[in-house]
Write a structure and sequence with these properties.
Glycerol-3-phosphate (1)-acyltransferase; alpha/beta; seven-stranded mixed beta sheet; about 200 residues
Length: about 200
């Protein structure tokens, strides 16, 4: 599989060159299905997250990136599948559900687009819907958008979030409540990372 080949051939170089500092790294060693979410500030975000994650991770990528056979082959080999961002895309949603139902890891950037300021944007609700539909825990991961200035990749991993536990407390607005809880957790991680030496 292309994913395994790329990750395990290039991963040592990634760790050597970018020297990732990942606080609470052990939390990423989750069994079963899970949704890993992170902030989004550059095109390299999925690559950095995939290299750090101990298990293979599936991603959505914007449909425009699949516009040539070579790109399509490469992206699918890296466990990515297309999403049409300008409309409700039930096919990509079903693919994400299939990933989780097979007890794999699904990675998503709930801001939906890259932040131009490095601040957290509002979160889209698809992540919460998926988590509730598939009973998948959400693992929030905040990555330092200023890593180039610091000369190394820095991330902080939060506590896993149980969407069903939140849904039980907020009947009738479960999706909104999970979305808000995850964004609050990400903001706390951002604040904590900014205090790290």
């Amino acid at each position: 599989m292309l994913y395994i080949l790329v990750k395990y051939l290039l991963s040592p170089f990634f760790w050597l060159i970018y020297r990732p500092k990942v606080k609470n790294f052990g939390r990423m060693f989750m069994r079963g299905r899970a949704i890993f979410i992170s902030n989004h500030f550059s095109l390299g975000d999925p690559i950095r997250l995939a290299f750090v994650a101990p298990r293979p991770m599936h991603f959505m990528a914007k449909q425009e990136l699949f516009n040539s056979p070579l790109k399509r082959f490469f992206l699918k080999g890296l466990l990515a599948f297309p999403v049409y961002r300008k409309q409700a895309d039930m096919l990509s949603l079903k693919q994400a559900m299939t990933v989780l139902e097979k007890n794999h890891i699904f990675g998503i950037f709930p801001e939906g687009r890259r932040s131009l300021t490095g601040e957290l944007d509002s979160f889209e609700k698809g992540m919460a819907f998926l988590a509730l539909r598939c009973a998948a825990p959400i693992l929030p991961i905040y990555a330092d958008p200023n890593w180039k200035a610091r000369g190394r990749v820095r991330m902080i991993v939060g506590e896993p979030i149980d969407p069903n536990a939140i849904a039980n407390r907020y009947a009738g607005r479960a999706v909104d409540a999970v979305t808000e809880a995850v964004r609050d957790a990400m903001q706390q991680l951002k604040n904590e990372l900014e205090l790290m030496p």
